[in-house]
């Protein structure tokens, strides 16, 4: 077989993720500080928790930790979303899940572009939370039309980027050289532009309608608005942020701190105020400021089954019904207590989580000799032949995402929209259906069980 003439999508994604991280470190220096803090905390955590290290080794996910991050962008039009899907596909990233944020007062709906399948995820799990602005939620019709016209005039992809996507689709991949060009050209789309494309008056009108609308409509492209490294101990990072000159958001989003981490916990530092300029009618630039870009960290835990997820949703709602976290942090301690109390109902032991069918696990052969006579997975586990490790949650959480959006939109910006999920409309714009996250995890779990049974059968047949 002759070697493939193409660089793999996984390698293109890894290169793109590294280039994006370097660009963002230049643009927002606090992100670099955060990365250094996360690296220190991860190292200390691995040194003090040998079982965590063993589990990451067993699932072959240790190497990816320090490379791991997600980012987020907000797009303005259906055409931008459809093209973005094609761009991400070249990097082996596909839309997973549908998130309706209108319910939380943010006029967008979203998906996450990410690698799918165990191998691709282990090579590089880079993902991008991608939102589409919903102009249909702007009440002022005149402003909506102006916003639409402004967005229709911009072209966020370079001609060269579009040509390379066409080529990749036509030929089935990109050569190493083309892949290098592709990374450079596509990175440009995510770059920060300090010169707005609207005048100050229009910016102000958009901003009054919703800060997020101003962020999407006023600029030449969908600047990356944050990057998020993965930490193994989010509480330690949250505690240490101030000592490195970073001010964290009031509370950590998601489940409470637990022995067995579930889903996703996230916190961020507030968006930085940046100088921008607005062209006036004579083309002269007037200075102003815009606040949008921030940094975030996250700790990922086990992916939950639909049963586990509905228990999570119930317990989170219960905690938030008793203490609603105030943006100024004044009731942060009370919220933490309410959360911990509510989640006492969620088993905090890996085998209990597994036995209750609440989470997904990866099964691997630990000791083939011990399993010589077993044939079902439970007796193989009991005999010590098979070990199980949590499958990491690769997706996002709508309530957490809303909390992250809010803390960076200015905490006074909370606004009500009628909840109006519209996955069908989103998928029409995207030009494809989004994948179902639960099916994805169930497939990984099932495949790991089949691999164990086949390996142990081969072993006992040979013995
Ligand atoms: C996206 C916020 C959501 C997360 O980690 O939940 C997000 C945004 O602010 O554009 O990134
Ligand atoms: Ni994020």
The tally of helices reads: 18
CATH architecture term of the domain at 9-300 and 404-431: Roll
The CATH topology of the domain at 9-300 and 404-431 turns out to be: 2,3-Dihydroxybiphenyl 1,2-Dioxygenase, domain 1
**What is the name of the CATH class of the domain at 9-300 and 404-431?**
Alpha Beta
Series of secondary-structure elements, N-terminal to C-terminal: HHHEHEEHEHHHHHEHEEHHHEHEHHH
The level of helicity is 40-55%
**Which value, in Å, is the CA radius of gyration?**
23 Å
Layout of SSEs?
Blueprint: H1 9-27, H2 29-48, H3 50-58, E1 69-75, H4 78-90, E2 94-100, E3 108-114, H5 118-123, E4 127-133, H6 141-153, H7 159-171, H8 176-189, H9 200-209, H10 211-217, E5 226-229, H11 234-240, E6 264-279, E7 285-300, H12 306-322, H13 332-342, H14 350-355, E8 361-365, H15 377-382, E9 386-390, H16 398-408, H17 423-430, H18 437-462
The protein binds 2-oxoadipic acid (OOG) and nickel (II) ion.
């Amino acid at each position: 077989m002759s070697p493939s003439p193409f660089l793999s999508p996984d390698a293109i994604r890894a290169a793109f993720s590294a280039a994006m991280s370097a660009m963002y470190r230049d643009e927002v220096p606090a992100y670099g500080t955060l990365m250094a803090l996360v690296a220190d905390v991860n190292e200390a955590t691995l040194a003090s928790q040998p079982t965590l290290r063993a589990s990451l080794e067993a699932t072959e996910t240790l190497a990816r930790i320090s490379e791991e991050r997600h980012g987020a962008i907000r797009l303005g039009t259906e055409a931008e979303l459809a093209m973005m899907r094609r761009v991400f596909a070249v990097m082996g990233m596909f839309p997973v899940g549908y998130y309706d944020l209108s319910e939380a007062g943010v006029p967008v709906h979203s998906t996450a572009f990410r690698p799918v399948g165990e191998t691709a995820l282990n090579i590089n799990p880079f993902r991008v939370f991608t939102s589409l602005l919903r102009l249909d939620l702007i009440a002022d019709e005149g402003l909506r039309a102006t916003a639409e016209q402004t967005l229709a005039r911009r072209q966020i992809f370079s001609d060269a980027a579009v040509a390379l996507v066409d080529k990749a689709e036509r030929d089935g991949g990109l050569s190493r050289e083309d892949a290098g060009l592709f990374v450079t050209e596509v990175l440009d789309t995510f770059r920060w532009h300090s010169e707005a494309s609207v005048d100050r008056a229009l910016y102000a009108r958009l901003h009054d309608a919703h800060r997020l609308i101003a962020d999407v409509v006023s600029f030449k492209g969908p600047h990356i608005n944050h990057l998020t490294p993965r930490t193994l101990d989010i509480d330690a990072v949250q505690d240490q942020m101030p000592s490195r000159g970073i001010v964290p958001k009031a509370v950590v989003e998601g489940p409470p701190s637990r022995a067995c981490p579930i889903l996703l916990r996230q916190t961020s530092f507030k968006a930085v105020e940046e100088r921008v300029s607005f062209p006036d009618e004579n083309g002269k630039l007037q200075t102003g400021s815009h606040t949008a870009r921030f940094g975030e960290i996250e700790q990922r835990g086990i992916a939950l089954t639909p049963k586990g997820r509905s228990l999570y949703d119930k317990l989170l709602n219960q905690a938030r019904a008793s203490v609603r976290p105030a943006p100024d942090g004044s009731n942060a301690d009370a919220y933490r207590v309410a959360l911990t109390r509510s989640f006492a109902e969620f088993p905090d032991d890996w085998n209990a989580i597994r036995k209750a069918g609440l989470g997904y696990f990866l099964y691997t052969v630990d000791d083939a000799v011990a399993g010589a006579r077993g044939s079902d997975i439970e007796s193989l586990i009991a005999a010590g032949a098979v070990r199980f490790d949590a499958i990491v949650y690769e997706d996002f959480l709508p309530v957490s995402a809303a909390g992250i959006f809010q803390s960076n939109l200015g905490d006074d910006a909370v606004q009500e929209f009628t909840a109006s999920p519209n996955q069908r409309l989103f998928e029409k714009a995207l030009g494809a259906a989004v994948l179902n996250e639960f099916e994805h995890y169930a497939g990984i779990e099932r495949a790991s069980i089949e691999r164990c049974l086949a390996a142990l059968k081969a072993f006992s047949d040979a013995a």
